[in-house]
Amino acid sequence: MKINGQSWRTIWLDDNGHSVSIIDQTLLPHVFRIVRLDSADDAARAIRSMQVRGAPLIGVTAAFGVALALRTDSSDAALEAVLALLHATRPTAVNLHWTLDRAAGVLRPLAASRRAEIALDLALRLAEEDVAINRAIGEHGADIIRAIATRHPGRTVNIATHCNAGWLGTVDYGTALAPIYRAHDEGIAVHVYVDETRPRLQGAALTAFELGQHGVPHTVIPDGASGHVIRTRGVDLAITGCDRVARNGDTANKIGTYMLALAAADNHVPFYVALPSRTVDLSLAAGHAIEIEERDEREVLSVSGRDGDGAITSLSIAAPGANAFNPAFDVTPARLVRAFITERGILAPADFGLLADDAA
Predict the structure, then answer these.
(1) What residues does substrate bind to (predicted)?
(2) CATH homologous superfamily, domain 2-129
């Protein structure tokens, strides 16, 4: 995708052939800064601090983190240490753990002398796979938007979304936003209502930034306004990404997604989840088994932004001494999800068995 007319990915191998660069998403949309990762500790810090975020991008960053570690020490002990380090960074996003399990399966049987090269090849391959997967998600999801536009010629298709599931949450293209970009590029009139997504404001800061850079009409709304907007503004569908889906279709995504799904259901608006098929965790029967990450309460009690002098600053917004509860995700029951938009096509939970067949 593009920023100020220049094409970017969210993560890439540097010209030196071993370090990795990322876009620091904690500073967007106010500051565009590239950060270099030279070690597995750098990669783990980037994941924990949300310099990189979004389940697909977290997974690819972890793969590069393994490669960075093995470049200096490829022993059995070093491999196990880096896998443990990265597994512990964020618990909810399944792509992280899927990637590390895949890396372990590939690297453990190898001689130590071969591990660094193979680990880097694997990270690069996973990055390219992610791009191809998200491009396909966009193609399948655009079919849904195109069908709505065909039924209502001359009318804008209104779409609600939550958090950021665009190219900034992946290597490129995105998940939930990929169908919107594809439809927009085809000339279909679309408009996106963007939940601000408290407490880290990924919608207001990141989704709005992406959509603006791509020229997609959009409006940022308070999270609490999503039900009112769906009821009164002619929203045709809602699309979000996700971080983990259980075998029955229960879906973990950024906190507030469940409320958006409830509002959509109450107003008979279809709610879709866009995801790579590897985000389905077939080992979990239902959503109650998904571990929900809880983050620092300071994210709720303060807000970061740009002041009148242009400086990036953090401001306290709560009463002195107030406590906060900060779950990073919630679980939307499968009954509220119309369908899942994947690189394989539009799936229902009953289709997830095909994914197990493919993995066998």
Answers:
(1) 53-55, 90, 202, 253-254
(2) translation initiation factor eif-2b, domain 1 (1.20.120.420)
For tokens 């900060």, name the residue.
Answer: 326
- φ, ψ for residue 43, nearest 5 deg: -65, -45
Contacts of 353 (CB under 8 A, 6+ apart): none
Q: Where are the domains of the chain?
A: 2-129, 140-359
Burial of 279 (0-12, 13-18, 19+ CB in 10 A): buried
**pLDDT tier for residue 360 given thresholds of 50, 70 and 90:** very low
243 is catalytic: yes
Positions at the binding site: 53-55, 90, 202, 253-254
CATH topology for 140-359? Answer: Rossmann fold (3.40.50)
In terms of C-beta density within 10 A (0-12 exposed, 13-18 middle, 19 or more buried), how is residue 353 classed? Answer: exposed
Which residue among the candidates 172, 223, 243, 250 is catalytic per the annotation?
243
Distance CA 17, CA 337 (A): 43
The pLDDT tens digits of the residues spanning 300-348 come to 999 988 888 888 889 999 999 999 999 999 999 999 999 999 999 999 9
Query: How confident is the model over 148-202, as pLDDT tens digits?
Result: 999 999 999 999 999 999 999 999 999 999 999 999 999 999 999 999 999 999 9
- For the record, the structure tokens of 180 come out as 């919107």
Binding-site members for substrate are: 53-55, 90, 202, 253-254
